[in-house]
Design brief:
Length: about 300
């Protein structure tokens, strides 16, 4: 009945955008648009531009399905714009989106909620790279992980094994991203847990061809082996799902998210790395694969996300 009521509304799928993930967003958006169209919804596809709101208003759009990834789409910016315009949209609100996108802010919230996350240090973008490098080398064991504070699809992430290479890589990363942090390197199994509504989906284990689950591993054919359900003991499997749902709730996420972990080889603790509030919806994306394993078709997944519109 709820699905039928949505068919009387005009739905806009937002994709593309201005982030470095625009190409993946276009693919996500096209797949979502095609699904809604094939299911009989009255749906339109939009990219973002300066006249977006006037275009949505002119078309008399009732609901926006956000399929944007990265900055200006997943960070609360577009959510705030739509709220100001009074147009309901799918997924998390302004604050939850902004917190999830800012990995340092999110990690502080995880720690406050006793959700394990790797030790980290926020870097001063105005300090000399040499001084920063010496400070980090003095109290972080190597290897370390260098990450931009707010970036998606693993852009700008480096695993640095050699202390002598740290300053050079740091300088380059700061020039490109400005706000960065260093994180303890945890060797272990990479897994991801989709959250749909208030339900944790089956856990997907990721075995990337590269050193870690970077952009190439995420989106190129054969870049990663997917193992579902993840090869975890039943208690650890349940614990990881529980932590994923706790992280989703701690940030205030709504509707859908994808929560990423490293399961430490050393202590078998699931250490959360990040929460993605607008998971990819391409044919190679994690969330649809997890949903499918739970018996949820792609069309049903799209409709259930649509029903999260606030």
């Amino acid at each position: 009945m709820l699905k039928q009521s949505f068919k009387n509304l005009k739905i806009a799928v937002l994709s593309g955008g201005r982030s470095r993930e625009w190409d993946v967003s276009l693919r996500s958006g096209k797949r979502v648009f095609d699904s809604l169209k094939n299911q009989g919804f009255n749906v339109f596809q939009f990219d973002t531009d300066d006249d977006l709101i006037s275009k949505l208003k002119k078309k008399k759009i009732d609901i926006v399905y956000i399929a944007l990834h990265g900055t200006y789409g997943e960070d609360g910016v577009i959510q705030g714009l739509l709220e100001y315009a009074g147009i309901p949209y799918t997924g998390s609100g302004v604050l939850a989106s902004a917190l999830a996108m800012n990995k340092v802010a999110a990690k502080n919230i995880f720690l406050a909620n006793k959700i394990p996350t790797a030790a980290f240090a926020l870097l001063d973008p105005f300090a000399k790279p040499k001084d920063t490098a010496e400070r980090i080398k003095s109290f972080f064991p190597f290897p370390v992980v260098l990450k931009p504070v707010s970036e998606g699809s693993s852009f700008g992430v480096s695993i640095i094994k050699d202390k002598n290479e740290f300053e050079k890589i740091l300088q380059k990363t700061l020039q490109e991203h400005k706000n960065c942090f260093v994180e303890e390197y945890i060797k272990g199994k990479e897994v991801t847990v989709g959250i749909l509504g208030e339900e944790a989906l089956p856990i997907l284990e990721l075995v990337p061809r590269n050193e870690f689950y970077d952009y190439d591993a995420k989106y190129s054919a054969g870049g990663t082996q997917f193992i579902i359900p993840a090869r975890l003991s039943p208690p650890l499997y349940k614990k990881t799902q529980k932590l994923a749902l706790a992280a989703h709730r701690a940030l205030g996420c709504k509707g859908v998210s994808r929560v990423d972990f490293i399961i430490s080889d050393k202590d078998h603790i699931p250490y959360i790395t990040e929460v993605n509030t607008i998971p990819g919806m391409t044919d190679k994306s994690d969330l649809p694969a997890e949903a499918a394993h739970a018996g949820i078709s792609f069309d049903e997944l799209v409709v259930r996300i649509l029903q999260s519109a606030r």
